[in-house]
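1st attempt posting a full record on here, be nice pls
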Amino acid sequence: MEDRERHAAAERLLTHTGLGLAAAAVLSLVWPTQAFAGPPLGGGCSGAGKWVVCEADNDSATSGSGAQPADSGSGKNSDTQPVCTSRKLDPQPPEGSMYWKDQSPKDGGAVYERSCLTGPGGTPVYTYFIADDVADVPAVDPLVVAQQAVNKMKLIGPDIASPRAAGTYLVGVPMWMWVNQSPTTFGPNATSASAGGVTVTATAKVTKIVWAMGDGSTVTCNGAGTKYVASYGKQESPTCGHAYSRSSAPQPQGKYTVTATSTWTVDWQVAGGDEAGQFTETRQSQMQVGIGELQVVR
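the predicted structure (as tokens):
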């Protein structure tokens, strides 16, 4: 095996989330923290001694117009918190340990632990890798940098154009649903973020909206929906619609609560490299709609 190949950074397959896991507790007892060698200071990284912290670019962006989300949080850690920290395990795992994968301590290099606050509620996610020197390994996972780029976009829930809270809707009559489109409510939206010498460009666009109509039914629409015009009469929407079968009179305030959840598909690419990927984000908006019954006078 060539020296360069033997000493290339190898990401550990074993990943665990949260310090509450038993494996994490065992590791913290068996391998205490020692001084960390690299990455070099600067370029978004700072600190010395036990930890070197790399923080992502957290420039603010002006948010666009649109509906206020019912829940705009993505469950990610704040971009003011450290993205990732790394440390060299001490003592090193013995030869034959799963942490060495198919390598040996005799080949050179060492086992490192990387901790990123990307788990549910900002809990840490641990990965293990082998490297000659951590300075040769990206200190920040590109996926984490891509998430920081998404945070800069200030994405919010769908800007619901129809149904309107002040509209008049009837049982059995087709309702057309559609949303206004903007970079923050529908996309496309693209920006870049940098950390630890890694620059990632991310592009986000809504690929579907799931409407929970408040009457127990849901409607999935693969797009913004079709705007209704009077000439359509009582036709059903060709792309996104619903017909209520019951009046909203028994509901709180006499209206159904409609929740629109948009799924954003995010494509990301490392600048100057081949590494790329895709993940999704969700955002919500809510509104209320009254549904009446047509009264026939005889």
